[in-house]
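Q: What does the predicted 3D structure of HNH nuclease domain-containing protein look like?
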Amino acid sequence: MTYEEYLASPRWAELRRLRLALDGFRCRGCDTADNLEVHHRRYGTPLGSETVDDLTTLCGGPEGCHHAITTIIRRRLYATRQYDVTAVARLAPGNLEKNDVPGLRAFKISAHRRVAPGHAQRSLGEPAGLVCEGAEGGLGKARQDGR
């Protein structure tokens, strides 16, 4: 049974209902009654063998307690990891083959996006100028009018 199938089962529905009732239909983190979700406190227990005490009620969504708690857990988990960024090849048109990285087979980098050329309406080293003809007349008129 997959995790999704288990969450659609009558057993999960009953455990979820019991956990919500035990928590007073409130989030355990902030006491709101909005957007409630029932989550496993830890994973690793075989599906269907957990008890109501293995579950908790949290509010969901991008600003909810579930998101905040999992973000804290991830930060703690990844804070101690060491990464060697020099071991990773830079993705650029010259060194990326479609079959190099399975997840990036459809990935394409346009050469014109690699380097920012500067202002799009003038060449490098050229001083900035008026964008359109006649703009200087409007500026002079505005100064005369006191705008």
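A (community wiki): The structure tokens above were generated from the sequence. Residues 3-79 form one domain. Helices lie at 3-7, 10-22, 65-79, 135-145.
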